[in-house]
Each structure stands twice: as structure tokens, then as C-alpha cells.
Design a protein that fits this description.
By secondary structure, this protein is of the alpha+beta class. The chain has 18 helices and eleven strands. The strands form three sheets. Strands 1-5-6-4-3-2 form a six-stranded antiparallel beta sheet, with helices on both faces. Strands 7-9-10 form a three-stranded antiparallel beta sheet. Strands 8-11 form a two-stranded antiparallel sheet. The longest helix has 24 residues, at about 285-310. It is globular. The chain starts with a strand and ends with a helix.
């Protein structure tokens, strides 16, 4: 078993034995075995290994770990969280992964599956991120997973999810991090769009109810004009309201980074939900508090990015899904799987197109023709703030080629044309972060954070809206061919 505790250190994660990683026979065999498990028709492990004698050694370790994870994921599925004590978990679950006993799956994405787990030595619950087995056999995916743990372990900031430990056991690559009690901005935006009546959105889900209502009503940041002194402190949600039980034992501690699909259920709108829907669809008095809440979340995220950039880490995949909001109105940056390190020159070029398309900076969308720097994160945070403020994407559409072209060439719609209630100063700040040319954005994430703080303090912001001449010059620079053709046509017409 390989497992090093890294909390409070900047150590690199341990090297992992990748034997068999480049053997396609192992990949195919593991994928077939996993498919049988997930279909509810598991095969006998020993019999299956005997059918593949030429790769039996590699399969033995991989399948043992896979069985462990699959069994643990469903072990507590029907058990209320408050009923799972550390002693109960220690005696009733499958064998642990090192110091961690898996309780249940709480989310999954392209870079791994996240489980709620009990850290046995300390008696605390953590989020345990596990690399899927098929991905663990791909050297690129494995390196990306290790990069994520390495980057997060180097960063110590109150708005970055900390890593506690990283390890590999029985072929299972994992790392443990703080469990955040809250939801991702992508979930909150989707639910607010549903409340606002946007066509095509899923029905409102009760599991996010309290947090969505408090965000929409601006309760996560004080209204200074109303004499508020600090962000509203909220009671932990109950299991019935879709939160994670056990928060009463750790009332100030962040918790789970994902929503449990099983907890989602449709609820009739209560008074709080009705008020939240009104706040999102009218010129409601709470709109000002909502905008201040968003500005405060953006300030926190920008300051966390500044910390990462200062130590040479560029996230490269800032988007709503990687920004978590807890019940106290704190934002948490997570998922550093695509991070690049200034110290690693070979990784600083973009190479393959990295990141999520809709939130890419123009230089990311250009692929390997440019070298990325920290300002790509500033742009992506600007895209996220635009979407959070307007509940509309900067550039909509599903056609990949068209979306790439628009990211590279088109200016975003003015936010106040989407929602006239957005404050002019806040629109100016976000549009500066969204400048096509990196040199025209904020020079650092701290400068963005400072301007957001000036907005919150009702002080003049530093950003200035571009003049008509500046906008025309930018357009001509991006559409050089059209501009030259127009000049030639004009010269011909006046000759």
C-alpha cells in the first residue's frame, strides 16, 4: 500500500507503478469486467482471471480493487447519513483503502469518482476522489490525476479545497480532500434558471433548495445599506432538505463537493422558493443584494487564483462546475486536473486543447498556437461571473466549430442588454476580465479581486469601459481581412 499524508505540505504525490498501463488487453479486460458489474451481472473474479492467463498478474490487482470500490459505493445507499457513525462504518463496510473506508458515491466527472469516506485514524468524513480503473490504465489520464493532487497539495488558501492524503492501494489511485457542504455553481445556476422559467431547464430540485434560495435572495452577503456586518450564517440543512446530515457535528466545516442524485426530488415551491423565483424574474429589492453576493463570490475566487498563480499554478479549467459554494457563502476552487506548473516547462504549452469549451479563453481556443499564462484563468472566471449574473452563457450554442469561432472573434453581448438591472460597474469589471487580448484584461487576479472589493465598498472601480474608437480598433484587429477589403472597396468607390 502506498499512501502519504500531504496535508500542510507541498510534497509531490508518490510515484505509482504503471506496469501494464500500456497493454490494451488489460484495458479491455478491466472495462468488460466493470461493465458486467455495473449491469448487475457480475462474473466470478477468479474464473475471469483464469480466462486471461497471459495478463493474470495485472488483472488480479486491478479487479480486487474494482470489486472493493463497487461494493463500497452501494453499501450505504439506503442508510441515512446521520445513522452512520464512525464505529459503525469501521465494522460494517468493506475493507478500507488505507486509512479510508468508503461510505457512498457522491459525484462523478471526467477526472474521477468522488465518494464520501471515513478517515479511520481521525474519525472524520472526507471526500475521496478515485480514478476510474479504465482511466488508471491510460498514462495520460493517470498523470493528469496525479497533477491534480500535486497542485492542490501545494496550495494553502481558505478558498481552495485542501488535499489531506494521496495514495494507491490494490490498483486504486485516490486522494482525500476536505468535504464541502454545498453545491457547485453549475448546479446552482441551472436551478436558478429553472426558477426563473428559462425554457428547456430541468425542474427545480429540493436538494439545492436552501442554498439556491439564499443565493438568489442575496442572503449570503450583507447589504451594507441595511447595516449588515457579515455574511448571513445559515443553519446546516437537514437530510430532508437535501443537505448532508452530520453538519450539526461540524457546523463550521465545509462538506460535500457534489449533489447526490438520489436525494433530488421535486417539491412544491414553499415561501422561500417563491421569493427566490420572484427575485430572479423581477426588479426585486433583493437584486442589489444578489449582485453583491456574486461580486463577493468572484472576489474570493480571484484571490484564491492569485494565490495559485503566485506559486506557479495555472488552473486552466475554471468553470461553474469547479467552483463550490458552501452554506456560509464561501466559494471553493477544486479540480486541478488540467493545471500547469511554471516549473515544468514541457507542460506550459497548450498542446491539445484543454478545458471546457464554453469557458475557454480565446488563447485556449486557439490550441497550440500560443502559450498560456495566468490570464486565461481570469478570462474563465469572467465567463463564470457573466453567467452567474445574467443566467445566460457568454456564447450559446452546441456546434463546436461555431463556438470556437465566436470565442476567438466575437465580443460578448453587453450584460445589461440581457439583464438591465446588472450594475454598470459590475458589467465593466466583468467585461474587462473578458477582453479577447490577454494584455487588455486585468494584469493579475488580485487586480480583479481589488476592483470587485471596490464595487462592494461603493468606491470607484479602476476598470474603464472602452471608447467607440477602441472598440472599432479591436474589431478591425480581429477581422483584419474584412477590414482591409472594406478599405479597398471604399478607396475604389471614391477613386
Amino acid at each position: 500500500m502506498k499512501s502519504d499524508h500531504v496535508a500542510g505540505s507541498a510534497d509531490r504525490p508518490p510515484d505509482v507503478d504503471d506496469s501494464g498501463a500500456d497493454d490494451p488487453r488489460v484495458v479491455r479486460a478491466v472495462q468488460a469486467y466493470l461493465a458486467a458489474l455495473e449491469s448487475g451481472n457480475p462474473v466470478d473474479r477468479k474464473t475471469y482471471i483464469a480466462q486471461h492467463p497471459e495478463i493474470a498478474a495485472e488483472l488480479t490487482e486491478c479487479l480486487a480493487g474494482l470489486d472493493l470500490i463497487h461494493a463500497a459505493a452501494g453499501n450505504w445507499r439506503e442508510t441515512p447519513l446521520e445513522a452512520i457513525s464512525s464505529d459503525h462504518a469501521a465494522t460494517s463496510s468493506p475493507s478500507p483503502l488505507g486509512d479510508f473506508r468508503i461510505l457512498r458515491e457522491i459525484g462523478r466527472g471526467g477526472m474521477g469518482v468522488v465518494y464520501e469516506a471515513m478517515q479511520l485514524s481521525l474519525g472524520r468524513r472526507v471526500a475521496l476522489k478515485v480514478l476510474p480503473f479504465a482511466a488508471a490504465l491510460d498514462p495520460k489520464q493517470l498523470q493528469r490525476f496525479k497533477n491534480e493532487a500535486q497542485a492542490a497539495a501545494q496550495l494553502h488558501h481558505s478558498n481552495i479545497v485542501p488535499v489531506y492524503a494521496v495514495g494507491c492501494e490494490r490498483g486504486v489511485h485516490f486522494y482525500a480532500m476536505q468535504l464541502i457542504h454545498g453545491h457547485s455553481l453549475s448546479v446552482l445556476i441551472r436551478q436558478m434558471r429553472s426558477l426563473a422559467g428559462h425554457e428547456g431547464d430541468a425542474d427545480y430540485q429540493s436538494s439545492t433548495g436552501m442554498l439556491v434560495s439564499n443565493l438568489a435572495l442575496g442572503r449570503l452577503y450583507p447589504d451594507r445599506s441595511a447595516g449588515g456586518g457579515s455574511a448571513t450564517r445559515l443553519d446546516p440543512p437537514s437530510e430532508k432538505s437535501g443537505g448532508t446530515a452530520g453538519a450539526a457535528q461540524q457546523p463550521t466545516g465545509p462538506w460535500d463537493s457534489s449533489t447526490r442524485d438520489a436525494a433530488d426530488s421535486k417539491l412544491p415551491a414553499d415561501a422561500s422558493t417563491t421569493a427566490a423565483a420572484a427575485a430572479l424574474t423581477t426588479h426585486h429589492s433583493s437584486r442589489r443584494r444578489y449582485f453583491r453576493t456574486v461580486a463577493n463570490l468572484g472576489r474570493q475566487a480571484a484571490e484564491a487564483l492569485e494565490h495559485a498563480h503566485t506559486v506557479g499554478v495555472i488552473h486552466r479549467d475554471i468553470k461553474p462546475a469547479n467552483l463550490l459554494v458552501d452554506q456560509q457563502g464561501n466559494i471553493w476552487i477544486t479540480d486541478f486536473g488540467l493545471a500547469q506548473f511554471h516549473a515544468e516547462v514541457g507542460l506550459t504549452r497548450t498542446g491539445d486543447m484543454m478545458g471546457t469549451l464554453r469557458y475557454m479563453s480565446p488563447e485556449q481556443a486557439l490550441g497550440n498556437r500560443v502559450v498560456l499564462d495566468h490570464r486565461t484563468d481570469i478570462y474563465s472566471l469572467g465567463v463564470t461571473l457573466y453567467e452567474l449574473l445574467t443566467l445566460e452563457p457568454v456564447f450559446a450554442g452546441s456546434d463546436r466549430a461555431d463556438l470556437l469561432r465566436r470565442i476567438i472573434e466575437d465580443e460578448p453581448r453587453a450584460m445589461r442588454s440581457v439583464d438591465p438591472t446588472v450594475p454598470v460597474e459590475l458589467e465593466t469589471i466583468v467585461l474587462k476580465a473578458l477582453a479577447k487580448v490577454p494584455t487588455e484584461r486585468y494584469a493579475t487576479a488580485q487586480e480583479l479581486a481589488d476592483d470587485l472589493q471596490r464595487f462592494l465598498n461603493d468606491e470607484p472601480i479602476r476598470a474603464r469601459r472602452p471608447t467607440l474608437l477602441e472598440r472599432s480598433t479591436k474589431w478591425a484587429r480581429r477581422h483584419r481581412g474584412i477590414f482591409i477589403s472594406a478599405l479597398l472597396l471604399l478607396a475604389t468607390a471614391t477613386a
